[in-house]
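User: For a benchmark we're assembling, each entry needs the component sequences followed by a predicted structure for the full assembly. Here are entry 17's components. Please fill in the structure.
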Amino acid sequence: MVRPTMEDVAARAGVSRALVSLVMRGSPKVSDQRRNAVLKAAEELGYSPHAMARSLASRTSHVLGVMVSDLHNAFFAEVVDGLDAVASEQGFDLIINTGGRSPARERRAVHSLLSFRPAGLALLSPVVPSAAIKSAADQTAVVLVARSSRLSTVDTINDDGERGIALAVDHLVSLGHTRIAHLDGGEGTQSAPRRRGYLAAMEAHGLPPRVVASEYTDAAGAKAVQELLRDGEVPTALVCCNDFNAVGAISALEEAGFRVPQDVSVVGYDNTSLAALRHVSLTTIDQPRNEFGRLAAEALLQRVRGERTDPVRHLLHPSLVVRNTTAAPGGPR
Amino acid sequence: MVRPTMEDVAARAGVSRALVSLVMRGSPKVSDQRRNAVLKAAEELGYSPHAMARSLASRTSHVLGVMVSDLHNAFFAEVVDGLDAVASEQGFDLIINTGGRSPARERRAVHSLLSFRPAGLALLSPVVPSAAIKSAADQTAVVLVARSSRLSTVDTINDDGERGIALAVDHLVSLGHTRIAHLDGGEGTQSAPRRRGYLAAMEAHGLPPRVVASEYTDAAGAKAVQELLRDGEVPTALVCCNDFNAVGAISALEEAGFRVPQDVSVVGYDNTSLAALRHVSLTTIDQPRNEFGRLAAEALLQRVRGERTDPVRHLLHPSLVVRNTTAAPGGPR
DNA sequence: TCTATTGGTTGGAGCGCTCCAATGCTGTAG
DNA sequence: CTACAGCATTGGAGCGCTCCAACCAATAGA
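Assistant: Structure for entry 17:
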């Protein structure tokens, strides 16, 4: 349980501690003979450098902190994949932490991450107040994913929600739909641009909009459809605020005797793995999640390397994924 | 961007560095007057202790490393929640890392985690070879979740897969089913005990077993059902290796004109959030995931505190969650 | 032959903190 | 008035490492 130090390796290899340090950092100015001796000694002792001591001494960090607001959401898993790919390519380690969608827990999580003095911090869809983000940004490079901000010291990566919803509406219109309703995400992040996108797209097509209050869950989607049915006026297509909401809407429709897509077409948002299941096979809007992560890591690393101090605002293009929940009104084909 | 140190706080409060250290660690042997002065100075400077320097100096760590084999799987999110709850309660921080289900990446992830010299390490369903686990266990306390091991230096937390599948079979038998097939998880972890449980339960009921090779994905579940149908002999109930597999099986059944549960009953395993969706509403076996995490954290902390050196082997009881994919053969009621 | 130059190697200082032994300071007993 | 606790407080050493200036051949140039 007691790990060897650089000193131990040096003693075993018959060299100085500084030389071991050079070898460990892959310096070219070490003779092959010594290098091999050091590597051999390290191997034999099972030595690996102490990351904390290293960063303390070098006054630099090779760690990026990542605060995931909700680990249960697979959306973030892919963002993390993207972050990880770029980070590890550049020799950075990720330390991840979760905030459980509660501002208090998130605050603690950010605090804990900062106590490791990371080179940068990626906040994935954080719910903490802007002031907390600002204070984090005073201490390290910060990038926000799926949350916008006007702070001049933080970078942001978002998808263009207006455009995404417009893709959905355009798709439905091109199939021949005219009565298209939107199940709204309410207070959720990103629901405002999605609503705006819906209203703008409907207007552009000269169609009357119909926004139904809902939320980002399948239960809410089902409830919204039930209300819609009670009102008697059933649209021929539904643009939902996300995939869960869409799946809930679909089950409520089917329970009420409507067939999807023959009677009603449904479009989700996010292209979660759920949407891809053949049992669901949901037409939806895909966000380039992996790209979110990659860009977030790159934004951080640019700041770390001092290449940039101006904030960047990435607005990525979503894309339409057509599956089996949309068709022309009145039946497929 | 340059953070204040203990020295700065000490200077501002007009005390020594050591006194600040005592205050930061909540020592009782500090006069209220000085304590307040220090806290005030720290507040004004926006100081928070440097976790790495602290752990370097104290030769102790308040960090637990967590290697999640697959972030995309929400199963682990709940395990992490459990870990987090216990850890933070005891003043420990979690640093999470992911292995992406690849032994090479996992090895790197574990290495990276170890370079922080964590007090303990939780490996969630790791796929690395046993030797790698052993070498980690030489360096710190290790607990394995959803993977068994005979290593005497590591603790393990698993669900009783045999019992879980038996619950499923018993449920189906009690509904009147006799032709019950098992879609097997193949090479996946935990698929062996599940298969054993199935065979034992069928035998106990005096029924002929039927194991169909499959995998832990919805595509594999669909494929297995298609093969079953091609063979002509359709069972009245399917016990699947996990929820994804079950959902795939259901869509293949429906595509072939069978109704679930009227014609065929289907049971999943894991009780993922997918199973709870009303559109799916899958009868399944629940594993106490949060409890996995809590027990894992506790096992680690017991070792850290030196309360125990013998390994513990937790085998938790799964439970049956009845939803709408199971019914008596020949239709509900 | 002597001085530069180069490339490899080293000891020492110091990163921000904890821990310990030692210090100063009360207050009380002798 | 001295002695001695008992307590709050402090300087210094040291955790494992990096970085720098200094050092030491060995070779090249004059």
